[in-house]
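Sample 3 of the quickstart, ligand NAP:
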Amino acid sequence: MSHAVVHRRIGGPDVLEYVEAEPARPASGEVLIRVDAAGVNPIDAKLRSGIRPSPPLEGPRRVGADGAGTILEVGEAVEGLRTGMPVVVTGAQGLYADMATVPAAAVTPRPHTVDAATGASIGIPASTAYQALRSLSVGPGDRLLVHGGSGAVGQAVIQFASAWGAEVIATTSSRRADRVRELGATPVPYGEGLTDRVRTLSRSIDAALDCAGTDEAIQTSIEVVSDRSRVATLVRGADAPGFGIQAYAGGAPYGLSEQQQAWRREAVPVTLALIAAGAFRVEKGPAYPLRDAVRAHEELERGTDGKILLLPAQS
Ligand SMILES: NC(=O)c1ccc[n+]([C@@H]2O[C@H](COP(=O)([O-])OP(=O)(O)OC[C@H]3O[C@@H](n4cnc5c(N)ncnc54)[C@H](OP(=O)(O)O)[C@@H]3O)[C@@H](O)[C@H]2O)c1
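Result:
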């Protein structure tokens, strides 16, 4: 019997239920996946709790946008994917499950050398980081300030931006400064006096990306970057127009452009190739059996180091 995590109400972590649920046979353009690992993202908790509005619940809603596993069955009109292929899935729904039927467009072949837990950790974080940096035109010689540098998105931002020739200053807790440094950024502790500390490190900052969502992150960014078209938030989208800065989803009153969506898709195979080549690092955090999704979301909301994972085979 197959299982999935669903919720029938908006609320705290305990609205998540581990239930028996057979996946649908793949229709045209779809693929059935055995999920070996699901990535737990902040957006999962924001949708569950209603922090990010979503259509009214009209029955049990499946959870989870990121995962990795193996293709069990391929529907009609799907090209380039075969039964037995290891894959990464991102931008789908219902990956907190041991099997999931997903659109083929959400599926990317995964090199055999990249394990499922690593593959499940990259979808949303790496694709968001890559798109945001492309949108901000970050490149050689730029000085970039990233807020939340020790998080999943922040770590991807540091690695892409450094690889593209930018110098990165990353805000972090003091506890996590070494991680940020190892990835190639100069750490700066967040908290009172941040703008002065950033100015002490660098007289000019060309672009800033907020992955933290605090007033301090927005204020510091607009104080140290003169061109507001090169300041963006991933979290405070609703407030971005008022500050005259960019927002990429995160509650923005407008959607991603076609180019931005294309960059997000492009990021997944690029990141997988970099990981396979040993040129991109992923920090995995605590792993839970699928039946313990409630605990995983409690941990997500407390804050933890590395990507939280759900491992269906352990349930
Ligand atoms: N718009 C989009 O499309 C999009 C996509 C992905 C993610 N997001 C959003 O981006 C945010 C980060 O996502 P994530 O997956 O990277 O989360 P994450 O892995 O949980 O990381 C969160 C980071 O926030 C940092 N942080 C905590 N308090 C802070 C503060 N007061 N000031 C500055 N940083 C602070 C933490 O640093 P320490 O551990 O060092 O304290 C941690 O590194 C979330 O809000 C998420 O919903 C948006």
